[in-house]
Amino acid sequence: MAAKALLQVEGVQTYYGNIRALNGVNVSVNEGEIVALIGANGAGKSTLMMTIFGSPRARAGKITFSGTDITEMPTHEIARMRIAQSPEGRRIFPRMTVMENLQMGASLDNMRHFDEDAEKVFTLFPRLKERIAQRGGTLSGGEQQMLSIGRALMARPKLLLLDEPSLGLAPLIVKQIFDAIRELNKTDGLTVFLVEQNAFGALKLANRGYVMVNGNVTLSGSGAELLANPDVRAAYLEGGRH
Ligand SMILES: Nc1ncnc2c1ncn2[C@@H]1O[C@H](COP(=O)(O)OP(=O)(O)OP(=O)(O)O)[C@@H](O)[C@H]1O
Fold first, then answer.
1. 45 lines ligand 1 (CB under 6 A)
2. Where is the ABC transporter domain (predicted)?
3. Strand segments (E) across 31-135
4. What is the per-residue pLDDT for 152?
5. What is the ipTM of this complex?
6. Structural domains present in the chain
7. Can you tell me whether residue 128 is helix, strand or coil?
């Protein structure tokens, strides 16, 4: 069966004032795939994630989701299309409990299956269940990351955007988080687009990957192809976390 693009990014340019952070980026994510975006600090990876989510806006190019043009859509409408985001730095609500954070992630439409969806999050991340009444800000970094992903899942997304889920976490916790992403993809068919500095882990997890340099996508291929590519190895893998 031919792969169907769920997300299509074509020729996207994004600026901060006069500074162009994305120079005409083309990326696609097919239904049921895990796609990784790797690149050095400042390459534009987070900017691409945020542009897909509507802020900052693309100044040129087109972003399509499920065949609908979302380039000009406000963020809340993009979320209603069932795109959910776990942003860089997690950004959970620190004064709210774990349960309240999950409630914030569920749309009104999804409140009727809240218990079922929360239970799914707890099956995926049992550590969160033990901390239901604890305030988000008092969780460890890894638990906050789990909560950030859990909150995004409460929206029942078709596409999950993850920005640096492994940032600053111990290898064992990174493994738990990557295993959870793999599990969601395998059992629920969830489509995932993730940004990672941990290129080795991300490319092992992903079906396909893109490499971004200075606001341009310079390479793409299957996870295995990129892992074997000498340029990728030299730039992102040698001496890295593997
Ligand atoms: N709010 C902002 N205002 C001005 N410039 C910005 C802003 N956010 C990002 N930039 C610039 O845009 C470029 C791309 O940044 P971006 O954060 O998207 O990179 P990144 O690949 O995600 O890097 P990192 O891995 O460090 O998060 C950089 O040159 C950065 O300095």
1. yes
2. 7-239
3. 34-39, 60-65, 68-69, 83-86
4. 93
5. 0.92
6. 1-82+158-242 (3.40.50.300), 91-156 (no CATH)
7. helix
